[in-house]
What does this fold into?
Amino acid sequence: MSQSDNLIRAANRELTIVRRFAAPAALVFEAWTNPDLLTRWMCPNDFSVVSAQIEPRVGGAWRVQMRSPSGEDMWHDGTYQEFTPSSRLVFSHIWSGAHPNPGLKTLVTIDFTDQDDSTTMTFHQALFTSQEDYDDHGRGWSEAFDHLAEALR
It folds into this structure.
């Protein structure tokens, strides 16, 4: 690994995605915290959400089961550290099951900002331990947020 590879890896330890949705912040926030809504969108293309459980409060747990196109199940779960309705979510994110990197733990922070009839969502996830994990999460979340935009219509 060259020195430039080290710099790339260090720079890509934190993922930030900013998306604007044609829905009020309260609804976008609910899509993250209502299991029925979450099952409609929280997966990349060609995957499906099998189940979702959420305890919507600080200290509450969340758990989502995804199924890959080949039928393998993987879970991502964690605990809410901040829970401010329509405004901010902070939670741990841990993979288990058939995920390529089980045990990968990151922290997710999401801010929801109302702007007229839409919401700007700023999603931040850190810290990644490899370029591959960073790339996989960036691609997966981007595809999931496309599904979220569809679900909010």
In short: The beta strands are 14-21, 48-54, 61-67, 73-84, 88-97, 105-115, 118-126.
